[in-house]
Amino acid sequence: MPTRGKSAHDVVIVGGGVIGCSIAYFLAAHHGIQAVILERDGIGSGASGNAAGELAAVGRHQYSDMYTKFILQGIAMHHELADEIMDTSGIDYLFSDITQVRPALNRSDVTDLQYQVQWQESLGLSANWVEPSELKSRYGWLSHKALGAVETVEKQLESYPFCLAMLRAAEKLGVTVKSGDAAKIVQLPGQIVEVELESGETIQTTNLVIANGPWAVALGASLGFTIPMKPLRGQIVHAALPSGFGLPSYSIFHDSNYMLPKASGALLLGTTDEAVGFNPFPTKEAERDILASVVDMIPPLEAASVIRTTACLRPSTPDDLPIIGQIPDSDGIYLATGHGHKGITLALITGKAIGDLVARRNCDIDISMFKLSRFGTMQ
């Protein structure tokens, strides 16, 4: 047990984003374990609260079959648990359907997207190829240059309310939040882990979950191992349309550019993936680039005005897969980070998997592909 004179808790989760809040919820709801969430800035203040919030297995990337099936499991959990989480928390995060349109803007796109339709169908996913002659009547916001498109029906939610809902549901089950900035982790004898805060305070625990996005790298270094992950800044333009313009009922995605109308009435335009270190601030240059790209693809957006531009830092790994699981040769230290663009989508499945591991229960979710050891960086 933790020594006297120290703040002590059975489970400490570093990071109050959607991953950390989800882990806390599953520990409490499924295992009766009340964790403490240690958060530096504010719940959902990073990528979790600033994400676009569309849940799609296929989009700008075509992942491996195995990872795609994991993503589909994650989306299925959103379907299964949305009512439970919203009822428990009292927060409606507007979980709803939206049609996603992925246009082909050149001949190479046509080949790639038609192959994707076949690949999605092989996985049991519904996807439909729309011929150019049908686009104007069905998706009139698209440029006439589109040579066809893939349409699918996806789910979306409001990211910040979703993060708050996970926290509120967890708090009702006894989870608490502590403000603090974790600076260093020390593994002590007797399966005790000590977290040193920037304030000088120390917290001891027998189970530590590191779920603070790209800042996990520094905590890994304090334990003597390398987490191959970097922050990528993603910027999103929040736009408004003139009076008389109704929001379209569908989203449009092409590579990193998109238009996403939200159930709340918001209109999001994105995005960027910028390697700028830990600089979290939006830029006018990115705002101009995003607007130019989406207007070229979606001409009616030329009439849109900018409300604001937001930015966040997404944790990105070399293979675009998250890092989920126990740190090798450690006693009670777990990682849940590196989700990139899929943090919201994979929040629930990650929360359940880590919750089961911490509770020493059998986990029926295969997370073997997400081990840190796949990078060969353990020292």
Properties at a glance:
D-Amino Acid Oxidase, Chain A, domain 2, 2 domains, eight-stranded mixed β-sheet, 28% strand, globular
Descriptive overview:
The chain has helices at 18-31, 47-50, 65-89, 107-122, 132-138, 159-171, 216-223, 284-297, 347-358; strands at 7-14, 36-39, 54-55, 96-103, 128-130, 149-156, 176-179, 182-188, 192-197, 202-210, 230-240, 250-254, 257-261, 267-270, 305-316, 323-326, 333-337. The protein is of the alpha/beta class and 379 residues long. The protein is globular and about 70 Å long. Mean pLDDT is 94; it is low at 1-5.
Give a short overview.
The chain has helices at residues 18-31, 47-50, 65-89, 107-122, 132-138, 159-171, 216-223, 284-297, 347-358; strands at residues 7-14, 36-39, 54-55, 96-103, 128-130, 149-156, 176-179, 182-188, 192-197, 202-210, 230-240, 250-254, 257-261, 267-270, 305-316, 323-326, 333-337. The chain is an alpha/beta fold.
Write the layout of secondary structure elements.
Layout: E1 7-14, H1 18-31, E2 36-39, H2 47-50, E3 54-55, H3 65-89, E4 96-103, H4 107-122, E5 128-130, H5 132-138, E6 149-156, H6 159-171, E7 176-179, E8 182-188, E9 192-197, E10 202-210, H7 216-223, E11 230-240, E12 250-254, E13 257-261, E14 267-270, H8 284-297, E15 305-316, E16 323-326, E17 333-337, H9 347-358
Parallel strand pairs: 1-2, 1-10, 2-7, 4-12, 10-17
Antiparallel strand pairs: 3-6, 4-6, 5-6, 8-9, 9-10, 11-14, 11-15, 12-13, 13-14, 16-17
Helix pairs in contact: 1-6, 1-9, 3-6, 3-9
